[in-house]
Amino acid sequence: MNRLPAFASHHLRRIALRTRSVSSSAPGSGATELGSKSVAFPGATFGSVFTEKMEFLSDYPTIPTFRVLDVEGNVIVKEQDPQLPSATLIKMYKTMVSLNQMDVILYDAQRQGRISFYMTHHGEEATLLGTAAALTKDDVFFGQYREAGFMMYRGLSIQQCMHQCYGNEKDLGKGRQMPIHYGSKALNIQTISSPLGTQIPQAAGSAYALKREGKDACVICFFGDGSASEGDFHAGLNIAATTEAPVIFFCRNNGYAISTPTHEQYRGDGIASRGHGYGIHTIRVDGNDVLAVYVATKEARRIAVEEQKPVLIEALTYRVSHHSTSDDSSAYRPKKEVADWMNQDNPINRFRKFLEGKKLWTNEQEQELRKEARSEILKAFSESEKLKKPAVSNLFTDVYDEMPWNLVEQKEKLDDLIAKYPTHFDLNSHAKE
Amino acid sequence: MFVFKASSMLSRSKAAARSQSIRFFAAASGNPPPAEGFMAGVATSKFIKSTKEQCLSHLELAAVRNSETVKMNYFTAVNDALATALATDEKAVIFGEDVGFGGVFRCTIGLAEKFGKDRVFNMPLTEQGIIGFGIGMAAVGHTPIAEIQFADYVFPAFDQIVNEAAKYRYRSGNEFNVGGLTIRMPCNAVGHGALYHSQSPEAYFAHTPGLKIVYPRSPIQAKGFLLAAIRDPNPVLVMEPKILYRSAVEQVPVDDYVLPLGKAEVVKEGKDLTVVGWGAQLYVLENAVQEAEKRMPGLSVEIIDLRSILPWDRETVEKSVNKTGRLLIAHEAPHTGGFGGEIAATIQERCFLKLEAPISRVCGWDTPFPLVFEKFYIPGMIRCMDEIEKVMNY
């Protein structure tokens, strides 16, 4: 595993929001004493001192945003460059571009009625590749829905993504869920579910299990700025703190929850400010800077695994995408705003310029990559289109480990109905039993 | 070893052993009621196995017929099952509010000391977090046993239970599952619990494919079903009628055993009427049937403890109703939308031509669970007995 340059990790610790460790000689030694300035109440777990000045706190220090690259892809402070091997950098970049291409093609596929739904990742590619490169396959992944790039870096093939979006007989999910609800046991990728934020306390639980096993592994849990308003966010972070679970909570703060801008989502200092409330190590990063995301995630993993405690990373980014294929964001934000972000602060461009600066990438390679990616995607596309949907019996299996009597009977009822009215049911588009 | 103190009973002329049909507090003697209430009549119920022979002679306990038995009440039996689970499965842990010191109903007494604080530990006050955490542990193959302090407080966890736990295996195409998850919760009337310490929420969850629900009526059943639930590869809700924690005492095998989820039990055979209930309602029904059989000489009623709500044992109920031709279902949960409706609809489908009377239900009224009106609210002995007579006289 790559170790961070000493300066980088020291720098990170300096700017990260400091959380004090719980005082081990916490109150319990007795009640309030006359003349003592210390607060003895058991609730003041960090200790506290009395004050005779009444002051409502409202002006909290704003958390700074860590970055390595500027928008032109230059490393600002030389020592912050994580010095990743070229192969890793290239893999990260290639995955970004492949993701981008897959997004374009599958978005269009939805528009043409070939798949029912899709969500793109435009503008957020750095949050996905920076994290993926910093973690191992032993680290359990929980996501929200806009993290396919992470999964692809880890090994989820474009073909597998296609199968899931088509809900065909090769979909690992057996055609049960809407597109983009990927999952893979082999890749340690917990299956995506639509309810938002539910993954957050689950991630804490999986992390606690890893802790019990003494594994050199952590959990990474993605969620957005909107999901962080759910009760599950509060519950999950608090429990991760009290159980000292090795989990990285990674917020993709992209500025929007469908149409709701952050000003209508919260009034605090983003999501990072909440870490303090839970006693969690926290950092805010430039989510469009793939190296900053990498560096922060790497250190977060070290804290989680070595110190066995949760970490909160807030990655600020911008959702260039519409929320999904069901959304037209021009209804609630100016097209110019989107164009500005795409042109001025584009994670793929920033990274490419960094690579070009290091002589690791050329225009020819770019053209070649785009051609290759497009061709691979289109091939996977036509492969998936050809396949049938899973056999109809998959409607009834996996509700439990074994089918209970009521499902056995209901399946029989359906089979009888299909046999009775064969033309009414489109059996041909499903695989045979 | 648990020592059971004889309750102080009301000294009324009518008292004797027969007034056990009505639930009342030990408060009648001047002492405050225990938190988990007291249900008179359970002690002398025929369903309770008070000797070792009675206990071990049951067919379902054949595997442990040579076991020693120990007098345990319901919470001690739960405690025993939990200890057994942790001793036999290194990945099993117990968590919930206040479980560390032993739990508000003593179900987890001594477990943190015995197995360590990393395996038996308190959770912050957040049911959605508790269950979400449990799902996460189960998703990576561990055996989390979560406690919800009162069934009335399970609702913040409804999303995690219904949208996540129940659907985890199905939606992932069986890539993942949370079969290792077990959720225990005290439920049902306790005498003074009112709206938020008395509920029976089984119907909400019965409507969710992917879950299992079990409702043990006694210490022997509680130990066997809890172990079965913990080991079943599906998420299981274990509903523990809190009034039975102290009131139900039997000889329980000390050995490790399980009981079959999804199977009902005919606890009293009869030929004229089938009566179905679960949990503490069994003892109410026992008394109601006793009264009815006294008032209608020759009447022979069959009592079935449903035991599992999901999946439920339709076969046993159907077989019984085909024999008797009449069915009465009783549950504390409110009438409308209660699980009795599911049983009634299914049995009228299956036994239509054999029915001699409409299927009857005696349930809590369609109100929130009230405090001072509890005795009027619950499907108590008199109401059940009266309904039995109506069904027989149809």
Oligomer: heterodimer
Q: Report the sheet with the most strands of chain A, covering strand number, pairing sense and barrel closure.
A: 5 strands, parallel
Structure class of chain B: alpha/beta
Uncertain runs of chain A: 1-27
Please give the most extensive interface between any two protein chains, plus how many residues each contributes.
A-B, 48 and 49 residues
Beta-strand residue percentage of chain A: 5-15%
Number of strands of chain A: 7
Counting DSSP H or I runs of 4 or more residues, the number of helices of chain B is: 14
How is the topology of this model organized?
The complex is a heterodimer of chains A (433) and B (394).
Chain A: H1 6-15, H2 86-111, H3 125-134, E1 140-142, H4 148-154, H5 158-166, H6 199-213, E2 219-224, H7 231-242, E3 247-253, E4 256-257, E5 260-261, H8 272-278, E6 281-286, H9 290-307, E7 311-316, H10 335-344, H11 347-357, H12 363-386, H13 405-420
Helix pairs in contact in A: 2-3, 2-4, 2-11, 2-12, 3-4, 3-9, 5-12, 6-7
Chain B: H1 52-56, E1 69-73, H2 74-88, E2 92-96, H3 111-115, E3 120-122, H4 127-139, E4 143-147, H5 158-164, H6 168-171, E5 182-187, H7 202-206, E6 212-214, H8 219-231, E7 236-241, H9 244-247, E8 249-253, E9 265-268, E10 273-277, H10 281-295, E11 301-305, E12 308-310, H11 314-324, E13 327-334, H12 339-351, E14 360-364, H13 374-377, H14 381-392
